[in-house]
Structure formats: structure tokens, C-alpha cells
Amino acid sequence: MSISAAEVKKLRDITSAGMMECKKALEESAGDFDKAVEILRISGAAKAAKRGAERETSAGIVSHDAGALIELLCETDFVAKSEDFLKLGTQIAAAVKAAGAKDSAAAAALTLSDGKTVEQSVADMASIIGEKIELGRVANPDGDVAVYLHRRSADLPPAVGVLVSYSGSEEAARSAAMQVAAMRPTYLTRDEVPADVVENEKHIALETAKEEGKPEASLPMIVEGRVNGFFKESCLLEQSSVVDSKKTVKQVLADAGTTVTGFVRIEIGSA
Predict the structure, then answer these.
(1) Residue 210 in 3-state DSSP?
(2) Which of 178, 146, 241, 242 is nearest to 250 (CA)?
(3) How far apart are CA 61 and CA 209, in angstroms?
(4) With the CA atoms of 219, 224, 229 and 232 taken in that order, what torsion angle do they form, in degrees rounded to the nearest 10?
(5) Which residues of 240-258 are buried (b: 16+ CB within 10 A; e: fewer)?
């Protein structure tokens, strides 16, 4: 049976076992989650990983290869900027691009040039260095992609990576990627915002206006204005452009004959 990346991640989050171990356990249990946990407990995979389960991987790097983006996590900046760690990130990104892997579970199973899987290579480095090291998020969209990597400090490797899928001008798309890095939009357009999120924003706007003592007759207009403000902050195409603050990102892209169809933003230390 087919095991989804979400199921693998859920089992990994609970047991702290490796992604491939979790996938194998789910396959062996035919998707029975509780049985998969039991299999890992018996095999010792969960127990072996427990030592580092509470340690936080708040540092790391974002590496890319021709539009494939990967997140490699560790505990300290000292390790994040080490030559071997940077090299492993580059190798994983290249393998992801070459194989067309679309998520972390698929990436973990890939074989690198030394014959080891990504998962084994990460585990080996963790053992040698003595820090908890994890493969984080993976993004590898199809089609034309503009890439932007951002360093928080000149002496540290990139900690923010953005991919923007587009048609048209690569320069304009890269400017949009810089916008995503700086302004942290969550959605491309307001049409992508889930209905429950919109309703929650309306509720907050309404209750806040009431607390402020706004006139009852003015409440619908106030709520509409504040929800529109939410869209302008959270939707990329509605944000004020960092290139031209008098225009929205959508207008700047249109002027450049460019259409953005999606984006991915990965930042070390953020979910």
C-alpha cells in the first residue's frame, strides 16, 4: 500500500525514529499507526533516537540546486557553517533535483555519491559531530523557478530560502522572491486563504471594534476594512511592493509581463 509523507512525519514526530524506519514500519503494519509504533519500539529504532529527541535543531542551512530547496538542521551555528555540513547540504539538494524528490521522506531515501542514503549520511554526521542533525523541509516544484537565499549574518550560511514559480521575467520573479523573504506572506492570493481563516479574522475584527466602542452601524464597514488589511499583509500579490511602494506586487509583476503562480518559503527556526 502507498504510505503518505504526512503519515511518515506523524510517526516520526511521535517516535523520533528515522524517516525510512517509520516508512518501513508503516508498510509492515499495512498503515496501522499503533502497530507501527509497536514495531519501532520492538526494533529499538524509537529507543535509539530518544537520546536526542528533546534537543532542538534551531540552527542550520537552506541549500538549493537549480530550483530544488532543502533544509538541513543542526543545533548550533558553529556546525551550520562548517565545511562538511555545507557540503552535505549541497549534495542533498543536488540529489533531490536529480531524482525529482518532492518531500523529505522521498529525499531521505535517495542515495548519494558515496553509496549511502541521505538518511544514513545525516545520521553518520550527527554521530561524528555529536549534535542532533535532521533533514527538514524539501521543495522541488516543476517549471520555471526563481531562487533567493538570504543570510541573517555575513558570517553565516543562508537561513532563508525562497522559490517562486513564474512565467515571464526571471528578474521580476527574483524580486518577488526577495519580497517573500522579507515580508513573509502566507498565501499567493486571497482566493487561497481558507474560509475558516477568513471567518476568524472577521470575528476578531468585529469583537475588537465592539471593544473599541465603534458605532453599531459602522461595524460592517470596519470589519471589511480590517479583513482587507489582513489580505494585504498575508497575500503576496496584494502586498505593497518593496521595489515600488506605490504599487502592489501584482502591479509590479504585470508591468514586467510576469505571472507568479506559487511560492515556497523555508526559514531555519520557523515551522
Answers:
(1) helix
(2) 241
(3) 43
(4) 180
(5) bbebeeeebbbebbeebeb
Judge whether 104 and 138 are in contact, CB under 8 Å: yes
Angle between helices 33-43 and 5-15 (to 10 degrees): 50
Q: Tens place of pLDDT for every residue, the chain, 271 residues?
A: 788 888 888 888 777 777 888 888 899 999 998 888 888 777 665 554 555 555 788 999 999 999 999 999 999 999 999 999 999 999 999 999 999 999 999 999 999 999 999 999 999 998 888 888 999 999 999 999 999 999 999 999 999 999 999 999 999 999 999 999 999 999 999 999 999 999 999 999 999 999 999 999 999 999 999 999 999 999 999 999 999 999 999 999 999 999 999 999 999 988 6
Cell 512565467 sits on residue: 167
Of 105, 108, 102, 106, the closest CA to residue 122 belongs to 108
User: Domains of the chain (ranges plus CATH)?
Assistant: 5-50 (1.10.8.10), 55-140 (3.30.479.20)
